[in-house]
Amino acid sequence: VMASWIPTVAAVGMAIGPPLVYVDQAVSIVRKKDSTGFSRDVCAILLIANITRCFFWLGDRFELALLMQSILMIIAQLALLYICVRYRPRVSPETFGASSRPLSFWQWHTYAQYIEFLAGYILCSAILFLIFSRLELYVTILGFVALGLESTLPIPQLISNYKQRSLYGFRASTLLGWVGGDSFKTVYFYLQGSPLQFKVCAVFQLSVDSLSKAIILQRLYYGNAAPPATLEEGDDLEQEALALSEE
Questions:
Q1: Gene Ontology terms, cellular component aspect (predicted)?
Q2: Rounded to whole angstroms, how far apart are CA atoms 68 and 72?
Q3: How many whole angstroms separate alpha carbon 169 and alpha carbon 195?
């Protein structure tokens, strides 16, 4: 009798577990009123990947639990992104217009700009799906794009930690959620007979988890002390950033 409940419990855990990983991160940012240390590019990866995965579901109806996971993750990341933008670091590229990215991608000044981009991405994805959805190859590629992109999740955080030489602001619970969640997802995908894209990308994500372990090494090497930009007071730092933006 108990064994019959195991698939249901696993499905519920699969749907709500990954989005809950970011609750502690969000609470920490709100408590400190500072999003320094957490890479907003993580939100970008998860939002784009899970929106794409929803379109993949329209072409290949995989488990409902995985669709619900994507929907809940989108909601969670929209909320986390709002918190990050509201409590952005006092000195940041978008604050002084000093972003080096093309079109200042994902370093925009207002939350509305992020929503506009995501709305445009959804619209373009919908148009392409309506045109190519009957092609099995297109649906297959859609799945690999969605799940392959999600597999790169630790990379922007690794880069962010390196740039500020500290893990200040990045919660250990998020890292543990990545490592533990990837192992659970891999087992779940194989036991449930999920589409090939889920299985292949899950194995790839486990190999990328070496980057998550690299974040642990960063924690040991850099520590979690606040970087200089969050400690200095006065206008000197702000004037320096303005000067850099004018060059």
A1: cytosol; endosome; membrane; trans-Golgi network
A2: 6
A3: 36
Q: Is the pLDDT assigned to residue 238 strictly greater than 50?
A: no
pTM across the whole model: 0.83
- Residue 157 has phi, psi (to 5 degrees) of -70, -40
CA distance linking residue 222 with residue 161, whole number of Å = 9
Q: Are 155 and 180 in contact (CB under 8 A)?
A: no
Distances from the Cα of 179 to the Cα of 21, 226, 231, 243, angstroms: 11, 25, 31, 41
Cα–Cα distances (Å) from 74 to 6, 44, 51, 53, 62, in that order, read 26, 10, 7, 11, 18
Instruction: State how many domains the chain has.
Output: 1
DSSP 18-86: HHHTTHHHHHHHHHHT--TTS-THHHHHHHHHHHHHHHHHHHS---HHHHHHHHHHHHHHHHHHHHHHH
How many other CB atoms sit within 10 Å of the CB of residue 42?
A: 24
**pLDDT tens-digit readout, 50-73:** 999 999 999 988 888 889 999 999
Residue (of 121, 122, 126, 186) closest to 151 by Cα position: 186
The H-assigned helical ranges of the chain are 2-20, 23-32, 41-59, 64-86, 93-96, 111-132, 136-150, 154-164, 172-192, 196-222, 228-231, 236-246
Domain extent at residue 104: 5-246
Q: By C-alpha distance, which of 203, 204, 176 is closest to 190?
A: 203
